[in-house]
Amino acid sequence: MMRKFFVFSLFISLITNLFAGDIVIEGVYQGKNLYVMNPFASSGIGFCVYEVRVNGQVTTDEINSSAFEIDLSVYQFKIGDKVKVEIKHKDNCTPKVLNPEVLKPKSTFKILTMTIENDNTLKWVTTNEAGSLPYIVEQYRWNKWVKVGTVEGKGTPGTHTYSIQVHPHSGMNKFRIKQIDYTKQPHYSQELTYRSKKPPVTFSPKKVENEIKFSRPTLYEIYDYYGNIVKKGFGDKVDVSGLKKGEYFLNYDNQMDTFKKK
Q1: Distance between CA atoms of 51 and 231, rounded to whole angstroms?
Q2: CA torsion sign, 108 to 113 to 115 to 117?
Q3: Do 130 and 212 reside in the same domain of the chain?
Q4: CA atoms of 36 and 195, how far apart (whole Å)
Q5: Same domain, 181 and 146
Q6: Distance (Å, rounded) from C-alpha 246 to C-alpha 228?
C-alpha cells in the first residue's frame, strides 16, 4: 500500500512539473523586495506558485498564500548586485509580480568632479550609482544639445571615473551628462563650461562642386532645404559630390551657415 502511494505521489509530481510555468525576472538589487499576487491553482487545490529561487537558491519565504513577499534582504546583496528571480508555478494559472521595476537599474548618480583635460578629454567622477546604465555625453552647439558620445556606467557603489574624447569648438563650450532609466525621464548632471582658445573655423567654397574644406578639423552637420540631415561627422573636409544641386545648411564649429551645391 505504501509503495502504491509513493508511485502515485511521484506520478502527480511529474505531471505537475511537466505542465508548470516559470516566470524569470532579472535585474539589479535596489534595496527593495518583490511582492507577488498568488492565485489558487486551476485544480482548486493549493496556490499557483510552488517554488521561488533567487540566484539559484530556493527561498524560505512563505509562498502558500494569496500574496507573498520575496525577501531579498536576507541574501546580503549590495546595491547594484545582479539578481535573478525564478517563480515556478503550476499550469493554467499565472502569478503576478506587482513591482518588477524595483530590479530595474535606476539613475541615481551624483557628479563629484567634471573637467576638460588638456588633450580634450572630458573626465568625470561619480558616486551613488545603482545599476549599470549608459552615460550619454552632450555638447551645446548650434542652438541645441548634441549627443557626442556614450560611456557605459559601472552601476555599483563607490566612486567611479569615466572619460571620453570630445571636440570643443572655438569660444565658450558647454557639456553635460545624462542617463535615462526605466522611468524614461532623463537625469542630468550639472553643466560644465569650458573656454577654448582655438581660433574660429572657416570653410570654403560657398559654391561647391565636390568638396568642402575647413580651416581645421571640426564637428559638422549638413541639412537639406527640408531640414533632413544628409551628412555629419568630424574632419577638415567633407565630400559632397553625391548631393543634389541646391542650397544646404551647414553647421560647423560654433557657426551656422549655408552653401550652394553646383
Answers
A1: 56
A2: negative
A3: no
A4: 54
A5: yes
A6: 14
For residue range 47-63, what is the model confidence (pLDDT) as tens digits? Answer: 999 999 999 999 989 99
pTM metric for this prediction: 0.77
Q: Which pLDDT score, from 0 to 100, does residue 43 have?
A: 86
DSSP 45: S
Nearest to 82 by CA among 122, 108, 54: 54
Same domain, 20 and 97: yes
CATH number, position 211? 2.60.40.10
Residue 187, number of CB atoms within 10 A of its CB? 15
- Which residue range is the domain that position 175 belongs to? 110-196
Q: What is the DSSP letter of 127?
A: E
Instruction: For 215-238, write each residue's pLDDT tens digit.
Output: 999 999 999 999 999 999 999 999
Provide the pLDDT for residue 19.
52
How many domains does the chain contain in total?
A: 3
- From 196, 217, 238, give the residue that closes a domain: 196
CA distance 240 to 63: 66
CA 41 to chain centroid, in Å, comes to 38
Cα–Cα distance measured from residue 141 to residue 174, given in angstroms and rounded to the nearest whole number: 8
Q: Which is more confidently placed, 8 or 111?
A: 111
Q: State the cell numbers at 235.
A: 574632419
CA distances to 155, 251, 253 from 233, in Å: 30, 11, 12
